[in-house]
């Protein structure tokens, strides 16, 4: 198993046993659903690769969102766009009558700074972003799963409502938080999602809560040589803040992660910069600890401003909960993932994988591509806005092998594989497992009831959802230096 698979799937089982609630789908239904996904595999791949080429960053995924909406409308879904104050967000509905509401999540934003050709060597291309987390595959496969599930519902006269939520800006913009906060998921019986990865698993693990935002310092411009005493450097404020936060790392819980980039450090060395900005992420498994640490980071910013004769303002961009596992749904997803035949690779695809792996550091652990054994409760050392969904709706996820084993996310290797048939073949696996799971849950009221009961147990009887973003609206321009 690769290092990323070990951390992402964290095989630290809590001893959860599989509930004998959801009866399996009939073999004929399974075969029909998977055959439906196979018939649409070329369209899935076309959509995924088109979104890969668009490589649109958070809240700017205009073409990517429109492409997925068009596919769903053509398949008979009613689509509402621009939901929760986000122009590129949407919800697609297919309703046949009273019954369960099963939701699927779709993502489609790219990461800035990762333009890369779909080749197994480092080859930057023109552009500002790349799909280093495979969200092009995520969105396309979720749509394919929704369409196959809808076809099965029609064929079997299944009552209920199937929804697909198009959720922008997962990478830092917290798009799903605004959808949850707007109450658009409150009647969903179960939510299903997946993610691109270097392995196959339906293990249900936790993630890191996250608060992010930009600290903007304001000073006084001056000639850096002729009149430096007249200047007050905003960049000094940024650097003083960063120095204090870096010293603070010794005095925070060890699970904490703090990252930053200086997004504006001035324009010319001979001009004392009157504005400068640094963009921070703070993460920890506990939401309250994240909030407390971010308060300390803010105090460091205030101290830096005082010490450098500048002022500072904070603009929060994101805020997400940790991820709440649901073993009731997790075992259903795991059983269905095991029903899916994993892809075989052509000689050309295998050569691509092998060459990608040759770029990894010596000692990188690489899995064999099989479905990992089920586990629950391990810590995924990353953050996702699915966390807020998981605290308000019974939620289940999986990962599919869309990259060469050993590939870390947010890397050029992940971008490259996400733009090839290696990636799209893995996305087909995810689409099948999600569609099988959705279909099974439509016929499993006892399982849905137990999943809701498990959610209530895990989050506590006194739980009240309060977003880490408060009442702040979407930071629609956060990728544009604002």
What would a concise description of this structure say?
With 482 residues, the protein is of the alpha/beta class. Helices cover 38% and strands 18% of the residues.
Q: What do you see in this structure?
A:
The chain has 482 residues and is of the alpha/beta class. The protein folds into two domains: 3-207 and 322-459, Zn peptidases (Aminopeptidase); 209-320, Alpha-Beta Plaits. The protein is 38% helix and 18% strand. It contains 14 helices and 14 strands. The chain has helices at residues 3-9, 27-39, 41-54, 62-74, 135-156, 175-181, 234-248, 287-308, 327-337, 347-357, 386-390, 412-418, 421-442, 445-459, and strands spanning 78-81, 90-95, 101-106, 111-112, 129-130, 161-166, 190-197, 204-206, 209-218, 257-264, 275-284, 311-320, 376-379, 395-401. The strands form four sheets. A six-stranded mixed beta sheet has the order 1-2-6-3-7-14. A four-stranded antiparallel beta sheet has the order 10-11-9-12. The protein has a two-stranded antiparallel ribbon with strand order 4-5. Strand 1 (78-81) and strand 2 form a beta hairpin. Helix 4 (62-74) packs parallel to helix 5 and helix 7 (234-248) packs across helix 8 (287-308). The longest helix has 22 residues, at 135-156. The chain is globular and about 80 Å long. GO terms for molecular function: dipeptidase activity; para-aminobenzoyl-glutamate hydrolase activity. This is Amidohydrolase. InterPro entries: Amidohydrolase, Aminobenzoyl-glu_utiliz_pB, Bact_exopeptidase_dim_dom, Peptidase_M20, Peptidase_M20/M20A_hydrolases, Peptidase_M20_dimer.
